[in-house]
Amino acid sequence: MVEACALKADPSLAHQGVRLIVLVSGQDDSFWPSSAHARLAGIIDRDDPDHGYVAAVREVLSGRGWVSPELVPTLLSGRLGHLRTSPPPAEEVNRLTDREKGVARLVAEGFSNSEIAEQLTIERSTVKFHVSNVLRKLRCRDRAQVAALWHSHAPAVSCVA
Q1: Which of 33, 49, 94, 157 is spaced 20 to 30 A from 10 at the CA atom?
Q2: 148: pLDDT confidence band, cut at 50, 70 and 90?
Q3: Is 97 helix (H, G, I), strand (E, B) or coil?
Q4: What angle do CA 20, 25, 26 make, to 5 degrees?
Q5: How far is the CA of 44 from the CAs of 7, 25, 47, 75, 151, in angstroms?
């Protein structure tokens, strides 16, 4: 894990083969205009709760990537905007059942399937079923897109956890 300012000062820190997580200070961090994010395994917001840091390290160590849910809209806007050219209408969000909305909210907060199952006191296989439905109904490719969509529509959506 490295501070964004250190990576900006020495981009060689993110050299090939190193799984690096950068720590940024929100959406206004000077890190965003740089192209360094293309070589990272994770991006964590300094204001994330402790379980966000733990989840990021676990995901990166297991070979996957991590972006703090609050930073997903920043990352997708203008950098990866080609993944979804326009947000889906609010009616797509409203097609989710109350349980799917609760699962989507927890996905957007960065919870793993196991953590969601524990939080909602349901089986992990049931969480996988709900996550699959959320992805399909919202026409999202992955959990990061769900998080970006959720954060962009959250004020208008009421959910039951």
Answers
A1: 49
A2: confident
A3: coil
A4: 105
A5: 14, 9, 8, 12, 16
Instruction: Give the global pTM.
Output: 0.45
Polymer length of the chain? 161
Distance CA 51, CA 129 (A): 24
Q: Rg of the chain over CA atoms, in angstroms?
A: 16
Question: Both tokens of residue 66?
Answer: 């991590």
- Contact present, 74 and 48 (Cβ < 8 Å): no
CB atoms within 10 A of CB 36: 18
Q: What amino acid occupies position 159?
A: C
CA-based nearest residue to 87, from 147, 1, 8: 147
Q: What amino acid occupies position 136? A: R
Q: What is the mean pLDDT of residues 75-91?
A: 50
d(CA 158, CA 98): 9
Are 42 and 67 in contact, with CB atoms under 8 Å apart? yes
Q: Determine the 3-state secondary structure of 51 from DSSP.
A: helix
In eight-state DSSP terms, residue 29 is: -
- pLDDT confidence bin for 99, thresholds 50/70/90: very high
Please write the tens of the pLDDT for every residue from 9-54: 566 666 656 777 888 887 776 666 565 555 677 888 888 888 888 8
